[in-house]
Automatic annotation (TrEMBL):
PANTHER family: HTH-TYPE TRANSCRIPTIONAL REGULATOR RUTR, TRANSCRIPTIONAL REGULATORY PROTEIN. It comes from Streptomyces endocoffeicus. Residues 94-227 form the Tetracycline repressor TetR C-terminal domain. This is TetR/AcrR family transcriptional regulator. Pfam families: TetR_C_1. Keywords: DNA-binding, Transcription, Transcription regulation. It comes from the Bacteria.
Length: 234
């Protein structure tokens, strides 16, 4: 584990080390993370810098370094703050209902904080809250005939679907949706060339204007898991 990863682990998982010199600490990691989230929500992840966060908190950049070594660790703290606590595990609903609620709450997180799509790419250290999201999926599928790796793969599959829809939504214009914008752009062309694309023209003509890609894909993923679970458990 590299030095950067070690620092992220220390900040996310361990009690934060107190500054070894200087005046009594006037900041906290929570305040620093919240300031970073505020900037990213308003201007995007690229706008976040140690200087800008320090300015928002009315501190100097150098004083910020007494708490957070650099931007990579700052972003790790921001992700942990933005994802929040995972959905509560409950005994009542079945695994399917729990995973559906999980996916929809994750979708809301990406909608509220679109920059999370950029900040949660590739191998990286996760905090206890974010790792708790993975724990919820693995727990919901426990005892249903799936191996540990299959339960983790299910979490990856669900996350990938939610991320894909969130990416499309982020690219859409404010107030619009990927499906309606695609219909507006391609509908006239497909209609004009309906003899060349008859199946596509018929499908587009039957669209009801609802943006249901998230729910449709989610239900098909859960259907597939249900088939596998039924096969394993009889």
């Amino acid at each position: 584990m590299g030095e950067e990863a070690n620092e992220a682990v220390r900040l996310l998982w361990g009690p934060p080390a107190k500054p070894s010199r200087g005046p009594k600490p006037a900041l906290s990691l929570a305040r620093i993370a919240a300031a970073g989230v505020e900037i990213a929500d308003a201007e995007g992840l690229g706008a976040v810098s140690m200087q800008k966060v320090a300015g928002l908190l009315d501190f100097t950049k150098m004083s910020l370094y007494r708490y957070v070594p650099g931007k990579a660790e700052l972003v790790a703290l921001m992700v942990e703050a933005a994802v929040g606590e995972p959905p509560q595990a409950v005994d009542g609903p079945g695994w399917r209902e729990q995973l559906a609620a999980w996916a929809k709450q994750l979708a809301r997180s990406f909608t509220e904080h679109p920059w999370l799509l950029d900040a949660t790419v590739g191998p990286r250290v996760m905090g206890p809250k974010e790792l708790g999201w993975l724990e919820r999926v693995v727990t919901a599928l426990d005892g249903h005939g799936l191996s540990g790796s299959e339960r983790m793969d299910a979490a990856v599959l669900l996350t990938g679907h939610v991320r894909g829809i969130a990416e499309q939504a982020r690219a859409a214009r404010p107030g619009g949706s990927p499906e309606t914008e695609l219909l507006a752009l391609l509908g006239p062309l497909v209609h004009q060339h309906a003899d060349r694309f008859p199946a596509l023209a018929a499908a587009m003509a039957s669209q009801d204007g609802r943006d249901q890609a998230l729910d449709f894909g989610l239900e098909r993923i859960l259907d597939g898991l249900e088939v596998l679970i039924t096969r394993r458990t009889g």
